[in-house]
Design goal:
Length: 381
């Protein structure tokens, strides 16, 4: 089959966006993208840029090359025959958008290694499956100038997006009493009124406005996404010098698992605790500025260290020509009935879980399906 790839037309050149490619990697990989406008493109340039040479777009799942990294979404909904063609080649798969843990280790085994773009779980064998934080999408308008200190910002906290799901209603109700804030819901939240209408219809914020709001917010509460504690909002906040507040569960301190024990990002087991933390710090300007500085400096170190670790992983996997089997990538508990459901339940508290069940029942009654098919590009929610 002919090579139908085209050069990827990015706003920044490889030289402008990667870190010393010529000196850090002797044989750069070819980046094969299955998508013409990947929302993860800028994040990948930042984290994997030093190891990438030519960037090509396929889109038809036809391009197969040796010494390549393949970037794809929802792979279990595609023709597995394409991925099978990489078996025996020096190829790495980067798997995006798998927040439901729908991955298939049989497909993973066609590659020398896998990097999961977000959504970590302890079932993966770390020597064969690496982790890349979800990061921020290309839509985020990164600040050009140094960010303001926390005490110079307009809002104590802000949140824009869907509110009526998972733990988000609890977040909104607990924090709504802390002023000044900006809370904008793109959906209806029972018992919580918000001004989101104009004479022309529902109010909307552009990506530039969303960034400007983050840049003027001290805190960014980051409740869980659809089913997973990790979401884009966490990394957007860190990029803007805003202090994210993330959740943990009784059996899962997710961000400690993916970032390490020394991260300074405030982590709460309830949004009532988050409210107390925000009020405490708002009365202590020096402490709040110090926390912002710690988060910013830690995030810079973390990204540098993660890039180095990813490079070491790529080098190890490229040097090992062993053809993998599925069980080389996952631990035996992956084979236990109900593993995926149990893992997803760990991301929920009781209220979030009850809302999830309610949504699933409603979806089943209205559409006859428990979940809409996972196709298309990643969405920010």
């Amino acid at each position: 089959m002919p090579d139908s790839s085209v050069l990827l037309n990015w706003p920044l050149s490889v030289e402008e966006s990667s870190r010393s490619l010529e000196t850090s990697w002797d044989a750069p990989y070819t980046a094969i993208w299955q998508g013409s406008n990947p929302s993860e493109g800028r994040w990948i340039r930042e984290m994997l840029g030093p190891f990438l040479g030519e960037w090509v777009v396929d889109g038809e799942r036809q391009v197969v090359r040796d010494h390549a990294i393949i970037f794809d979404h929802f792979i279990t909904a595609r023709d597995r025959g394409y991925y099978a063609r990489f078996r025996g080649l020096d190829a790495i798969l980067v798997d995006f958008s798998d927040e439901n843990y729908d991955f298939d280790p049989e497909i993973y085994a066609y590659f020398r290694g896998v990097i999961r773009g977000g959504h970590w779980a302890s079932v993966f064998r770390a020597d064969k499956v690496e982790f890349l934080p979800l990061g921020y999408t290309a839509n985020l308008k990164l600040p050009d100038a140094p960010v303001k200190r926390s005490t110079e910002r307009q809002y104590a906290w802000s949140f824009l997006g869907q509110v009526n799901k998972a733990s988000r209603p609890d977040m909104a109700r607990e924090l709504a009493r802390i002023e000044p804030h900006l809370l904008f819901a793109t959906d209806k939240v029972p018992g919580l009124g918000m001004f989101n209408r104009t004479p022309e219809g529902n109010r909307r914020y552009s990506q530039a406005e969303n960034t400007e709001i983050l840049l003027n917010s001290v805190f960014a509460p980051c409740p869980m996404g659809n089913v997973n504690l990790e979401c884009f909002r966490v990394y957007e906040a860190l990029a803007c010098g805003t202090i994210p507040i993330v959740e943990k569960r009784i059996t899962l301190d997710y961000f400690r698992e993916i970032w390490g024990q020394d991260h300074p990002v405030p982590t709460v087991s309830s949004w009532a605790a988050a409210g107390k933390l925000i009020r405490h710090l708002l009365d202590r300007p020096a402490e709040i500025n110090l926390l912002q500085q710690r988060c910013t400096e830690w995030w810079e170190r973390y990204r540098e260290n993660r890039t180095q670790q990813l490079g070491e992983f790529l080098a190890r996997r490229s040097a090992d020509p062993t053809v993998l089997e599925a069980d080389d990538l996952v631990y035996p508990r992956f084979r236990l009935p109900g593993w995926k459901v149990a893992e997803l339940v760990r991301h929920h508290d009781l209220r979030a879980l009850s809302r999830r069940v309610e949504r699933q029942v409603t979806r089943l009654l209205t559409s006859g399906k428990l979940r809409v098919a996972a196709t298309g590009s990643a969405r920010r929610t």
